[in-house]
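Lab notebook, bench 4. We co-purified these components, and the gel suggests they stay together. Before we commit to crystallization screens, I want a quick structural picture of the whole thing.
Request: model the full complex, all chains together.
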Amino acid sequence: MSREDTGARRAVDRLREAAFSPTRDGSNRLVAGVAVLIAVTVISPLLWLFLRAAAVGPREALSILVAPSTLDVFVNSVGLVASVTGLSVALGVPLAVLTVLSDLPFRRVWTVALSLPLVVPSYLGAFAFVSAFGPRGELAELLSPLGVTIPTVYGFQGATLVLGLFVYPYVFLTTRASLLSFDTEQLEAAQTLNHGFRSAFRRVVLPQIAPGMTAGALLVAFYALSDFGTPAIMHFDTFTRVIYVQYNNFGRGTASLLSIQLLAVTALVLFLESRLGDAGGDGYGGGVVGTDSPVASLGWAKLPALAFCALVVGLTLVIPVAIFGMWLLRSGPGYASAGIGFQWDFAINSVYVSVLAAVGTVLAALPIAYVSARSDSRVAQLLERSTYVGYAVPGIVLALALVFLGANYFPWLYQTLPLLVFAYIVRFLPQAVGSTRSSVIQVDAKLLGAARTLGETPRGAFRRVTLPLIAPGLVAGAALVFLTTMKELPATLILHPTGFTTLVTYIWRVQEAGYYGRAALPALVLVAVSALSMILLLRQEGDDA
Amino acid sequence: MPNDTLEIPRRTTTDTAESTPDASAMLTLDGVTKRYGAEAAVDDIDLTVRDGELLTLLGPSGCGKTTTLRMIAGLTMPTSGRVGVDDETVASDGDGVPPEQRDVGMVFQEFALFPHLTVAENVGFGLDDWDADERERRVADLLDLVGLSSFADRSPENLSGGQRQRVALARSLAPEPEVLLLDEPFANLDIRLRERMREEVRRIIKETNVTAVSVTHDQEEALSISDRVAVMSDGHIEQVGRPEAVFEHPKSRFVADFLGQASFLTGRLAENNIETGLGTLSADLLQGLTADYDGARIDVLVRPDDLRATPCDDDRRTGNGTLVGRQYTGPSFVYGVELDTGDVVHCEHNHSTEHELGERVTVDLVADHTLAWYPAE
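Here is the predicted assembly.
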């Protein structure tokens, strides 16, 4: 018995050696080298940003940083982050509690509908709101004969409202997740210990869902800080908008200094997030949860609760879709007027550049994912982490860094498609690394060993065994990158080659020109694209769990 | 009323509740029914639990025992019927007092300890309206009672299963409930610990003199900890009584089957005798037999310890049955014997007696008590 055992174990060891022994050939080292090269390339643009900022000169830099206008920008940005986070918590937490713990009618339907605003890119939301509630907007036109004037949607309130409405689902979803892993028996235990529902909620539920709420709130803060589209459309001077304006007015030194300042604030948010550890870790008991029956009865509050849900869904889903749909049906005069009419070429351009980005990203992700999945070493982990830099850096800052890099060192790349595609790769590499890495991990190392003992070279084993097995992961990663590229705003805006119009740059142009009606079709296409990417993302998370 | 000392146990022996059947009723259920749609989970239950008594609701899963417990706690409202705690009606005809306003404590199956609070904070959770000194003393007393004084500042996550259960017990006893409910209190413990905790929990309950209702599907647990057992099936209470009474004289085949291994001897009553596969038995052995049944076919309940099988020397000519099954349980063997009449019965034997399958045996009745019987089906 035991002899057989050790025999079997030795055979397994041999298989493992055959699969991984670095002494057999140098191909593993080659892959690792390529991975490191890619990672360094991906981080490099940020280094140029620091170089450019350093060139400004210390005295000038100081005067820019302490200038009242810079301080205003800082206060505006932090204020917006605070108000958006506050609004998101105020919307997300009660809605999560209603859909998990209460006897709200149609809870499943509401859960889906209330998560959907994530599907609308916030700049499209802002766009829809401006054209509905803005001066000479659809609703304003409708109400003005009645003598009703809507308070302005521009500025701080407007940006807060739009961002809050379209990103609160982060808080909603993370809070829901912690509520679902919460053992509702504890709530009943508190009730048998002489605490009413309110008191039990405050003393027992709230402390335990706090980490989940905080995680969602930090995601919102991160989003609000780095979002470019909404403040720009709402004419509210945050870091991202001012950086863009400075860049357009050739104040590139100021733009890079502001970018670094923005990076510092972003780093602070990310630091807080990492300090949080794994949020919403459920208690010791493991969740035996009976949430099929609601715990709290709403009673008289049922109608107000329904109205609240309906209001949020109305503002976030019905208004944008209704506005875009209305424009689509109402073909205004001069629809195809010169220069600004919509052409299907723009959609083709979008698809073309997104396919390039998807393929490029997956090719870059493969070595990094492979090395980090197959090795526990520090270097491998660092390699995987480094790809997240592009994710964490606000898109506008990354775009700017690439502009400096291109204009100063690689003029032949500046305003070309390759540079734009490179920007997308840097931004969305983690998406592809994530899905590729998890599919590589799922490939049993013994299979490779088996292929080797059957006479395959390492490269042959990879091609004939690993690649077919990880193909679904690669395709999923590529699809995700494709869809996120389609709707990416700041990098596209800054780096697109002259004359190369995509759906996004077209929407931006008509938005700036005030011809809202023209954007209906591309906007609806982008909403659909975003919805698809959300479905993909959720499915991927489901697989990982 | 907050009270700074534990109640001094009024009774210390385990079965005094039985000897004082007129002790006042602490908990009463009158016609309590719970319907989910057309289905009745609990159907018209009447039950009285006396002050200081420990009663166990015993039954298979889905019999309505946990629903009954939750209706007593106030976590579920009965569709109809009345629940009374200490002369106060807490639920009647679909409406009632919420759990936090009932004098009822509950120990949950998964214990439901609050993971963000320490052991002491868990125990003190229900003592909000006590003043700080009294609360502190009460928590200390209870931790002492359950033997966890040195664990006061630990997190529940760092406790063993048995310790968690003791914290849950202390927590539910802290606000001095009139009635304590225990939902499958031992289901989450491993077998060895389960037996120790049964004695421990019974000791604590008896020491605090609280009226307790527990729920379980484990007959051994029910028989060993309870003053009385109520066997439930399909939303009804089949039988209530002292554990020995229910075990030895089950009122229905269901109860007989559910409590221990049951076999049935078919037989016909004739005058004062019963003809069975074991031969002719005296009708005096049957409990509560009346003359009305003369000539009727009946089934007599026999348990493995009531019977003994003796091997026959001469093959296939004597004896009254054949060995068809053998189950080794450690301390004993349980043999299955197919009697020549076709009945299959079980006999328990010392583990040193070992017989072969297929052997001819003579099965004898060795019971020293009367037997329960049922009219033949």
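Confidence is low (pLDDT under 50) at residues 21-25, 278-292, 333-338 of chain A. Worth comparing against the SEC data before the next meeting. Residues 87 and 164 of chain A are 6 Å apart (CA to CA).
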